[in-house]
Each structure stands twice: as C-alpha cells, then as structure tokens.
Amino acid sequence: MGIEKRFGVHPSAAAAWMARFGIGNPPGEVHAVRHVELLLHAGEVVGLVGESGCGKSTLGRIAAGIAPPSEGEIRYGGENVLTMDRAGRRAFELGVQMVFQNPFASLNPRIRVGDAIGEAPRVHGIVAKAELDDCVAGLMQRVGLDPSYRHRFPHQFSGGQRQRIVIARALGVRPKVLVCDEAVAALDVSVQAQVLNLFMDLRRDMGLAYLFISHNLAVVERIADRVLIMYLGRIVEAAPARELFIRPAHPYTRALLDEVPSLDGGSRTYVPIKGELPSPMNPPGGCAFHPRCPHAMPVCATESPQPKTVAPGHWSACHLNS
Ligand SMILES: Nc1ncnc2c1ncn2[C@@H]1O[C@H](COP(=O)(O)OP(=O)(O)OP(=O)(O)O)[C@@H](O)[C@H]1O
Ligand code: SF4
Ligand SMILES: [Mg+2]
Q: Does the predicted model carry a pTM greater than 0.85?
C-alpha cells in the first residue's frame, strides 16, 4: 500500500454558514498525497517535480519523518519506522534530514553559526564535548566555509553561505539521506551551481542519498539519477533522468518539458500549463489531468490509468501507454 496524506480543511465561519444554506463548497479535505510508493536507494538522487500545490513538500515532509502519513508505511533500512525500537527510530530521525528553500528562516538570527552547527551533535551525544570545536570546524570546512567565521551571526553571511551553514548543520548528525525542498531556489543562478556542486561532492564522498524537490528542470536534470513527476498528489511518471528528459511518456510530463528559458539567466524552468490546476479538494475523476490534456479520450474521464512500464525502469500512468 502506498502513502496517503489527507488534510482536513476547516472552513471560515462565513463559508461554514454559507455551506449550511447550500452556498459555496462544503467543508472537505485535501487529499494531498495519493497512493505514492517511493523507494530511495542508498546514495541515489531522486528528483521530484510537479506544479505548485501538487504535494511535493507534503511528500518530502513525510519521507523525512516530520509529518505522519494518513495511511501507509515509511520504511528505513527495510524496517517500518512506526514499529521500530527506540534505537531504530533515532537512526531514522537522524539519518534523514531536511534542507528547505529559505536558509534565513531555518537559522535563529541570535545564535552564532558555530553554535547552530554544533548543537545537534552535542545534544545527540554524537561527539564528546572536548571534540565539539573540531567537529564544527570540520563541518564548516566540509561545506566550504571558513571555520574562523564560526562566531558570526547568520545575517553576516550571503544567501549561498547561509545555505551552506544549514547543510553543515544537517551533516552534523551524520545523515544518510537529505530531503531538499527547493533548496537552491532562492539563490542566484551562479550560487545555485556552487551549492549543487557541493551536494554532488557530499554524495560522492559520503554516499548521501537525496530526495530533491525542485521547480527547476535544469537542476533536476543535472543532479537526479531518477525523476518522479507528480500531479495532484499522484506520481504519474517515473524514469531514469536521462530517459525522462529524452523520451517523456506522459502527456503531463511532456507539457512540463515544454519549457521556456526564464529571464534569470537562462535556467530551464517550466511554464504554467494551459488550463487551471483543478482544486485538490475536488480533483477530476478518471485521469486527473484529463481536463487539461490535449490527448484526452472518453475513457480518461472515467477510468484512472494504472502505471505501465514503457522501458526498463520507466513507467507512466496514461491510457495512451497501454
Ligand atoms: N497543513 C496543511 N493543511 C491543509 N492543507 C495543506 C497543508 N499543507 C499542504 N496542504 C495542501 O496540500 C496540497 C499540497 O501542498 P504542498 O505544499 O505539498 O504542495 P507543493 O507541491 O510543495 O507546492 P509548492 O510547489 O507551491 O511548494 C495543497 O493543496 C496544499 O494547499
Ligand atoms: S490518461 Fe488520458 S487524459 Fe490522462 S494523460 Fe493520458 S491521454 Fe491524457
Ligand atoms: Mg512545496
């Protein structure tokens, strides 16, 4: 069984009052993640792509253990994290770390960066007190920061340096997986490239695996081994990165890949697809993409397409792929 996530939506007082008289939408729920099965191998980079609101962050938070799924199991090292003993649970909690888009919001402005980086290794007893200074210096060096800056505060660093501080802090607990949610989106293009290089170096040197959520197709193409395409809570296509960019099988993926160069230095980022994204509270039946799909057939409105393998390691959920 895959992962499901539903959010109850509490209507405003006015909306609830109107709903009593049959005006407006009834109070409902957002089914943000639907039947998702996600396997991340050691040292693998999986890119997760889809339009705003499709459920990427929700899935990322579930994978990182920050939010519980409504249904479904999270397994770490093959074991269900809910039934793990304390040691196993701790290994999962430390082993999967999350890096967010805005490093400024992730750092306490009143805490010196050396203390921020050293806090988790100290609290979790990962290094002895006497070794903490060396540990912090080593982590700062590892991410390309001068350890002599350890006494400075976050505002004294550039955006790219702040993201390096956040990465050093995540590395302090010796993770095996980083869930990166738009982790380079707030950075200038040239700084993005440097931080991506850092991610790739960490993967090479430490065997880190990544779930890499990004709107930027150039970033995903560059960093990911495998790409998952998400639409209204479901994964609709999954393929090795090269294959996906050369031979996308799903009409939604093809629409996403009809990208235009953006104005900020030519990075490839997808444009809004024709038609509005349906409300996740009331998604279309059958294939959820059918109201916007240029290839929609009558069956698409009534039957949900099942995933079909179209090439080794490549599947797509579309009636055209049968
Ligand atoms: N705590 C919450 N309560 C209610 N609804 C939520 C909550 N968190 C997310 N949602 C809804 O779940 C859906 C998926 O949201 P999510 O943030 O995962 O999308 P996303 O793909 O990360 O979007 P973006 O690209 O804009 O970051 C959206 O409809 C969102 O409004
Ligand atoms: S199942 Fe139908 S509507 Fe959905 S992507 Fe395929 S052709 Fe388009
Ligand atoms: Mg998000």
A: yes
